[in-house]
Amino acid sequence: MSWFSSRGASSGKEQASRVQTLAEPDVHRSLALAALFDEIRGRKVQVLDLGPAVGSNVEFLSQFGCKLYIEDLYAALSSRTALGEGELSGPAFFAEFLAVPEETRFDVIFAWDLFNYLQRKELVHFAALLRRHCDRGARLFALMSILKTMPAQPYRFKIQDEQTLIYERRTAAERPSPRYVPSEITDAFKGFRVDRSFLLRHGIQEFLLAKD
Amino acid sequence: MAWPKKDDPPTHHPEPSPAAPPRPAAPTPSPAPVASPSSSHEPPRRTDRATIGPSIFIKGDLSGEEDLVIEGRVEGKVDLKQNNVTVGKNGKVHADVFGKVVTIEGEVTGNVYAREQAILRQSGAIQGNIQAPRVVLEDGSRFKGSIDMEAPKDMGGPPSRDREPRPEPHRVETSQVEAAGVKAGA
After folding, report:
1. Nearest by CB: B122 against A12, A54, A104
2. What ipTM was estimated for this complex?
3. How far apart are CA A96 and CA A103, in angstroms?
């Protein structure tokens, strides 16, 4: 299956219209995001966005003069599952997914809510890869669900401003949430520490991890 | 559909339409209308633009001095730094694309270098890197790669190629084609 068709049979147009027919997107304040932008202001940074390409995010991030890498992790995971290669993704999968030169370093990683969709072993494998591409001080932004269930597919996040995120649901279906606790996150992300963590009222815990 | 053989005399067409025998009843393959509801981002269109029709396959480098619409397949390099390049909805390009304003409605595997702006439409997909002072990604478009929004200092060559895809060295398997100011050649 080519990358161009990796999102299955539905076209981008169909997907876009489906998003629009779901519930109105939620708008939430993000304390971790505000802290992150405070830290990178005035620096030219390399950013890795693990979500789908979102035009407004590209436009927003352009003010920071950053170089932006966009790698849609969930699309890659979905494609792999569709090919019948199993649900658990190992180091080889992640290395192929993030096929950047060894010397590439990211200052900021937007993981959004994608870690909720990885099993613990997958988290460990992926964290090991990300660790190799981060220098000391790099920041990783992640949103973990603390509710029993969560959307069956990751949200599509749009940065409205430096402290506001728009959550767009891609599906009305739900699935159980792994409900990772902070110690599980830090165990998986060895070499990172929790720089900031905020528990939000809508059942999301924001993490800003920093590379030691 | 085939390009003329090397021994054939060069033919000139007002539009680079397929060189198939004339079919009176059939309309000349023409590009799909490139205007879209969101085309307000685009600069005013010039009338002098060349089109690579849906049935055309070019393997080699393309250069010229007028705007270009690609609805067919191109492998190699598209080098129109002073002009606008549009990869239409039917277009499939496996090449680095250099242009002033580069608009992608089809599929591109390769790097895109735009002097002014790169636009990835909803129907478009890019697997490669974008370098342009301004980048527009429409919702629903597919993109895998990196975006560098610093203005390219020298459009003479890619500033950094730190990721696949890296197109193979350009080879020309067809004869040189010159039509409407757009050249295909080594």
Report:
1. A12
2. 0.78
3. 16
